[in-house]
Amino acid sequence: MKRRGGTFFFLIGAGASLFLSITLGTALYSKYQQVAYPPSLIYGTWVEYDVAPYLAEQIVINQTGVAVNGGVVDTQISFDGETLRYQHGAQERVFHFYYHNWNEMKLASEALYQPVYVKSR
């Protein structure tokens, strides 16, 4: 009977250790991403590319949040060096940056229309 109890506690300890390792690893990786790719890399004004100037959407990203065509839509962004995420109303907007080029991003959350935005300043 003692043998079973020891095995049980060993498995509980191993599971807890695994959970703790994964949690700490995820937290460390997240911190690394914030240091290696700070959101300030993408701060600026982004303009929809290859669209008539009077129709082009303008996105401003800065330390206070995201504004689209002059109106603030979110005060928090998520940026990991490759992907930008923010809420625009009920919809999450997702943009991808390719080849560590932080001067051009492509909308990925729309299935039919995926415009490219270029950093203008």
TrEMBL record:
Domain of life, source organism: Bacteria
Entries under InterPro entries matching the protein: DUF2850
Annotated protein name in UniProt: N-acetylglutamate synthase
